[in-house]
Design brief:
- The chain has a three-stranded antiparallel β-sheet with strand order 3-4-5, with helices on one face.
- The chain has five helices and five strands.
- The chain is an alpha+beta fold.
- Strand 3 and strand 4 form a beta hairpin.
- It folds into two domains: 72 residues, no CATH class; 66 residues.
């Protein structure tokens, strides 16, 4: 079978059959996929769904799980410490929304404006900015704008710009 889980066509060896499983209420569709490390088994409680549809849903679910992992690891959505349930729900909702906000903001700036690799000589200069790079660049830009707005005309000097850049590097 060939299918396109992530936009590229992939050939997979599969076997699908119907089975009976009482906890699921009767007939289920089982899909066995041969992989390099052995294989995977998937099931669906709707026996009318094709194996291709089951594998496409699983690929979509993998993308969603990866997004949740990044939101927890990069965004810090895991360790919420609010005092009540609604505050925790709100904080988690903001953490889920933030990657989209960062991605939308980072659409316009050039890549070299989003990341400075001068302190990381081991990091290849040609690598595209990660979400963490973009996430760090946004508060840096917000702080830069706020400092320039508060400083007025003094913010136009090169000395002030160098000092502001140094402070922003420390802060972000």
């Amino acid at each position: 079978m060939e299918w396109a889980p992530y936009g590229a066509r992939v050939a997979k060896t599969i076997k699908t059959f119907l089975a009976t499983w009482r906890p699921a209420g009767g007939v289920i569709r089982v899909v066995l996929v041969r992989e390099d490390d052995g294989g995977r088994a998937y099931l669906c409680t709707d026996p009318g769904v094709t194996a291709e549809a089951i594998l496409e849903v699983l690929a979509d679910r993998g993308a969603i799980e990866q997004t949740f992992q990044e939101v927890k690891e990069v965004g810090g959505a895991g360790p919420q410490q609010q005092r009540n349930l609604y505050a925790t729900i709100g904080a988690f909702a903001v953490n889920l929304l933030l990657p989209s906000v960062v991605a939308a903001w980072a659409w316009a700036p050039r890549e070299d404006e989003l990341v400075d690799r001068s302190r990381s000589p081991w990091d290849p200069a040609g690598r595209r900015p990660s979400h963490a790079d973009r996430r760090k660049a946004l508060p840096r830009e917000v702080l830069r704008t706020e400092i320039q707005a508060a400083s007025g005309e003094r913010a136009e000097s090169e000395e002030f710009d160098d000092l502001a850049t140094l402070l922003l590097d420390w802060a972000a």
